[in-house]
Structure formats: structure tokens, C-alpha cells
Write a structure and sequence with these properties.
- There is one protein chain.
- This protein is an alpha/beta fold.
- The chain has one domain: Rossmann fold, CATH 3.40.50.
- It is built from nine helices and eight strands.
- The strands form two sheets. Strands 2-3-1-4-8 form a five-stranded parallel beta sheet. The protein has a three-stranded antiparallel beta sheet with strand order 6-5-7.
- A hairpin with a 5-residue loop joins strand 5 and strand 6.
- The radius of gyration is 16 Å and the shape is globular.
- The two termini are 16 Å apart.
- The structure holds adenosine-5'-diphosphate and adenosine monophosphate.
- Adenosine monophosphate binds next to helix 2 and helix 3.
């Protein structure tokens, strides 16, 4: 099963991807997490992502596609994946279609999380992210453990992402509206719009229904 979790920054894609990994037994592929890992490891590739990510701009397609191509070759993604934060442009969507087609695969569903802008702002303002493993919390709705250590990896750096600050969020949202939203036209018939409001469990249940697994 190849599935795209779609929606604006802060819609809940990463959060829901974690539940779906268990259910569908395919890996989550988050280009944002992969890029942050490259940056914190200080690699040459990470340095090339730096200026775009700090400004809240999309990283150029050729760099993202190369990153994705390498990731898809790993054996855990041989029978499917949950794509989170990718594709983000129509060119990326076309490249992904091509990579999957080589293995007789195709995107089966694009789950488009529908969340009003005021809810998005509240979610991003309260988001806290583990710098070590990318696990995501929210100060009120899903708080980090009182020990300050990540429940997933025991890391002690749970931070407010720099690009989650207001000015950059506005920039990222503008990028989403201009460059990412048109992807829904590309995927047309396999798009399932899902109400992304309510509790984590409410959203999971709606996604499972949309996938015919409820
Ligand atoms: P995305 O991957 O789409 O950018 P995240 O999964 O990181 O979004 O979610 C953004 C923030 O909102 C995180 O702090 C997360 O804990 C919180 N969140 C996600 N889903 C819900 C929900 N249904 N209710 C309340 N908070 C949520
Ligand atoms: P995310 O973690 O998905 O919110 O992504 C954080 C940042 O990483 C984005 O604002 C972009 O700068 C960059 N990024 C992540 N995924 C992509 C992608 N598929 N295409 C271009 N840039 C991306």
C-alpha cells in the first residue's frame, strides 16, 4: 500500500503517520524528518537544505527527489510506504509516480487532512519536536513526558522548531497554497478528504474509514 498523507504544515500528518505505520506495516517516509536529520548531522546535503528550510521555503525539487529515490530503495519500503510531507509540488508527484511505476506500484490513496486555519495555528504554536528522533508532541494535546525526555527515544532535546515560529509558518503556508495544493488536481480520483479536527483518535478513525479499514 502506497499512501500520501496530505495537508498544510501542522495538519497532523506526522502524528497520524505514526498510527498508520502500526496498522499498515509499512514505513513512514517524512522528507522533513529526513532533512532535519541531515542538517543536525552536519552533512554536505544537510547544508544544502539549510537556507531554504530556515526561510520556510520549499527545498528545490531535484534535491528532494534524489533524497526520496535513495530512501525508497531501502528494503523496508519494498511493499509500500506512507509519504508524509512529500510530494509537495506537482513535479515531485510526477517523479514519485515514475519511481513507483518501475516496481508496478502506484499511490492508492491521498488522504487530505482538512483543518481550519485557526486550529492549524494553535497546533503549530504548541508543537514540540524531539530533535533526536522527530517524535512530535503538543504542549496541551499530547504533552511531552514530565521528565523532559522523549517517550520514543529517551532523547533530552524536545524543542520548538525554529520554522514553527509565526513569521516562518506564514511563509510555509504560502508555499503550501501556491505549490502544494495543486497536487490534489494531479491525484484527482484517489484523493479522500478527511476532517482533521477533533482528537487524535477521532482523526485516526476517520482515516481508517477512508482507507476502508475502519
Ligand atoms: P504535520 O506533520 O502535518 O506538520 P503534526 O503531526 O506535527 O503536523 O501536528 C502538528 C501539531 O498538532 C503537533 O504538535 C501535534 O501534536 C498536534 N496534533 C496533531 N493532531 C492533533 C489533533 N487531532 N488534536 C490536537 N493536536 C493535534
Ligand atoms: P515538514 O517537516 O514537512 O513541515 O518540512 C519542513 C521543511 O522542510 C519545509 O518547510 C521545507 O523547507 C522542507 N521540506 C520538507 N519536505 C519537502 C518537500 N517534499 N519538498 C520541498 N521541501 C521540503
Amino acid at each position: 500500500m502506497d499512501l500520501v498523507l496530505f495537508g498544510p504544515p501542522g495538519a497532523g500528518k506526522g502524528t497520524q503517520a505514526k498510527f498508520l505505520v502500526e496498522k499498515l506495516r509499512v514505513p513512514q517516509i517524512s522528507t522533513g524528518d529526513m532533512m532535519r536529520a541531515e542538517r543536525s548531522a552536519g552533512t554536505e546535503l544537510g547544508k544544502r537544505f539549510d537556507s531554504f528550510m530556515t526561510k520556510g521555503l520549499l527545498v528545490p525539487d531535484d534535491l528532494v527527489i534524489e533524497l526520496l529515490e535513495t530512501r525508497l530503495k531501502r528494503p523496508d519500503a519494498a511493499s509500500g510506504a506512507i509519504f508524509d510531507g512529500f510530494p509537495r509540488t506537482v513535479a515531485q508527484a510526477k517523479a514519485l509516480d515514475g519511481m513507483l511505476a518501475k516496481h508496478g506500484r502506484a499511490i492508492g490513496k491521498v488522504v487530505a487532512l482538512d483543518v481550519p486555519v485557526d486550529v492549524i495555528i494553535d497546533r503549530i504554536a504548541g508543537r514540540r519536536t524531539c530533535e533526536s528522533c522527530g517524535h512530535v508532541y503538543h504542549v496541551r494535546y499530547n504533552p511531552p513526558p514530565p521528565t523532559g525526555r522523549c517517550a520514543a527515544c529517551n532523547g533530552d532535546r524536545i524543542v520548538h522548531r525554529d520554522d514553527d515560529r509565526e513569521e516562518k509558518v506564514r511563509r510555509r503556508n504560502a508555499e503550501y497554497l501556491e505549490k502544494t495544493l495543486p497536487i490534489l488536481g494531479h491525484y484527482g480520483p484517489v484523493v479522500a478528504k478527511v476532517d482533521g479536527t477533533g482528537s487524535l483518535q477521532d482523526v485516526t478513525r476517520r482515516i481508517e474509514e477512508a482507507l476502508g479499514q475502519g
